Amino acid sequence: MTFNIFMFYFLSAIILIFSLLTITSRKMLRAAVYLLFVLVATSGLYFLLNYQFLAAVQLTLYAGGIVVLIIFSILLTSHISEKFKKPSVWKIWMGSLSFVFGSVIILWVLLSHQFVKPEGLKDIPVNMHLIGNQLLGLGKNGYVLPFELISILLLAAMVSAIVVVKKEKK
């Protein structure tokens, strides 16, 4: 077994275990930390595939941004010790049924489809200067303005959520 195959199985096991812990944990802060481990392991899979840019985006945007935003929201609203209610038997049964049904569909699609590169499809060369200019550009195909708008939207959502939670009942 090569190192890459071992790392793939190791990161896949981390993703599966911590995903399960994320949805079954009854403590809000623990669930957010488990989600952080899932997102970091996902970026590890991207690194194994030599998708360094996508792995860096995964680390900075999701693991570094979204999860930190969630954790700050939990800490600022003093809900650290809050526990989620135990789910009813009906919800557990329906969730399990959805899991089994979805897994069967995914396995059927993966096993019945032949993943072959189409004839005549050429590889597109990666030009890092072009990607960098598009990410930092303001003009056509630029991403700076949408990024700033989304960051303001996330900030407004966090501030409004904190205001709603901190509002004292009279």
> How many domain modules?
2
CATH class of the largest domain: Mainly Alpha
Number of strands: 0
CATH superfamily caption of the largest domain: NADH-ubiquinone/plastoquinone oxidoreductase chain 6, subunit NuoJ
Averaged pLDDT = 82
Radius of gyration in whole Å, from Cα? 21 Å
Tell me about the largest β-sheet.
Answer: none
Report the CATH topology name of the largest domain: Four Helix Bundle (Hemerythrin (Met), subunit A)
Q: Give the end-to-end Cα distance, rounded to a whole number of Å.
A: 65 Å
Gist of the model:
By secondary structure, this protein is mainly α.
Describe the structure.
This protein is an all-alpha fold and about 170 residues long. The protein is built from six helices and no strands. About 5% of the residues are buried.
Give descriptors for this structure.
single chain, 170 residues, mainly alpha, Four Helix Bundle (Hemerythrin (Met), subunit A)
SSE topology sketch:
Elements: H1 3-24, H2 28-48, H3 52-76, H4 89-112, H5 128-136, H6 144-166
